[in-house]
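My current task is to audit a protein record that another person submitted. I need someone to confirm that the token line plausibly describes how this chain folds. Take the sequence as given and treat only the tokens as open to question. This is what I was given:
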Amino acid sequence: MQKNLIIFIGIILFLILIAFGLYFFQGKEETQEQEKEKNILNKEYYSIEVPEGWEETRGVPGISAMIANLNEENADPAVAKIGFKSYFAVAYEGSKERNMQEFIDYSKEQLEQGGTGITITSEEEITIDSREAYLMQGELEQQGAKFKAFIVIIKGNGDDMWFITFNTAFDNWQRYDDLFYEIINSFKILAEREEVKIDVTIIEQGQGQGAEPGDKLSVYYTGELEDGTQFNARTEGEPFVFTLGQGEVIQGWDDGLIGMKKGEKRKLTIPPELGYGEQGMPGAIPGNAVLIFTIELLEIE
């Protein structure tokens, strides 16, 4: 199985997106609703403004929405060469019982360990939709092109944490300044996310101590859709290796493999909210798909 088929969402997925430049918001008061017609993207749990001329793209698995300025022209030859277009993205992740400060620290740690090369230049507590929020602004260079990178963490309902990122070429920042503030301030949470659970069935018992977050696991697995279609597998040769609870895999794996023992085989039935969501994985996993994994734990380190 290719690793990118189970790479996760939230802050880790934003580390993948950072290769294209990341954007983050600074706190400004919301501009008055007047000058231009506003297009609002309404999702099940939130809404956000889409600027005129920007479009929702097909996106990336695990990202609820990606909106890009597809007609943008970049004067920087290095930026133009890689075909980059400014965009912003929205994603959700459970806090896993972390409070806001603990989740901020966790997110910053992931950024530092992710090897993205981003340098955080400013941080600030803000308020969005009358909710506690936190922004980080950074800069990075990829493939000879320089980018401005912004990340917003918003405390949602219950265990919910929302991310908004905005990525733009460094030379474009002044051009988009006010517009970015409008976008971030337009974010509204519409409803509380319903709790979703994984169905875990132990097929064969294992031995020893159960896996805990931070353990490195070596596994064989198969992944199927509900109709039995197998979309990927790793059942022989080099096992798939990842660190549990660090966002290196989909949340359904991070949550569903806790307590698993060496030699154990278990089946995970994972709802789309903890898998690839409404985006799916083009060419392999349809949107809103329930995933069924059979996993054998070979080693725990």
User: Anything to note?
Assistant: Residues 199-300 form a domain with the Chitinase A; domain 3 fold (CATH 3.10.50.40). The chain has five helices and 16 strands. Residues 146 and 170 are 6 Å apart (CA to CA). The radius of gyration is 20 Å.
